[in-house]
Design goal:
The protein is α+β, with helices and mostly antiparallel strands and 246 residues long. Among the domains are: 3-63, Zinc/RING finger domain, C3HC4 (zinc finger) (Herpes Virus-1, 2-Layer Sandwich), CATH 3.30.40; 190-244, 30s Ribosomal Protein S18. It has seven helices and nine strands. It has helices at residues 51-63, 68-77, 93-108, 130-164, 183-189, 214-220, 238-244; strands spanning 3-4, 11-12, 18-20, 27-29, 33-39, 45-50, 203-205, 210-212, 231-233. The strands form four sheets. Strands 8-7-9 form a three-stranded antiparallel beta sheet. Strand 1 (3-4) and strand 2 form a beta hairpin. It is flat, with a radius of gyration of 50 Å. The two termini are 99 Å apart. 9% of the residues are buried. One of its GO terms (molecular function) is phosphatidylinositol-3-phosphate binding. This is FYVE-type domain-containing protein.
Length: 246
Amino acid sequence: MTSVCTACRQIIANNSLRKICGSCQQIFCSNCVYQRIAVPKLSYQMHEVCSACFHSISTQMILQKPPKGFMQRLEQQQPPTVHRRIPTNELDPETRALEERLEKLRMAFPSSSSAGVAASAIPSSVAETPDDLLQQMNDALAIEQNAKNQEKDLEERMRILHATLPPATPDTVVLPKPKVEDKANDEDEEFPWCTVCNDNATKRCLDCDELFCEACARKIHRQSSYKKHELESYRPSAKAKKKYNY
């Protein structure tokens, strides 16, 4: 009896290659049923299942919460956390000094369950009285008034300065001098080399506006499209010779 695999739709001619999923009870070939897992609806017995059932059961087992009895046993096995107070003589000097200061503060400010720290335990030097609050307010107002006075004084000084200075005219205004480009410097910045072979240039083409050596100038301007170009001799300045090792 031939069957068809539910997953890959392959015809199963041999019954030895025919398998049934332990979860969905569908018919599969041996290539599609090869994974074993505990099936929940079969009392968690191990069975070979198809890929779809394997992923479904695995996801379900990951997402479900552990049994209540397991969590109770786990809590019983965990030892209770004990906070042991370290003796003062075992602490380092800095920590010991901090512990002593904290102990003095606890004695000076006893805690109260209803109202927190008692108001009577706060020293008078720390507590803010109405007179202290008024003094702070007066100091803030004095600082603000002083800033306003300084601003008014600055405005008055600027007004007097503008009144004493003569009005600006084209004769009194000094404008920056325009920058004059130095052509000599521009020529020095030009590389005194042939555009083609990078040898020392001896010719300048006025039409191409390029520098050439003697050989490249003859070779290029021998062509018909460059024959009418005008060439002139080129000699770099002494500064350019020294700068570019001409």
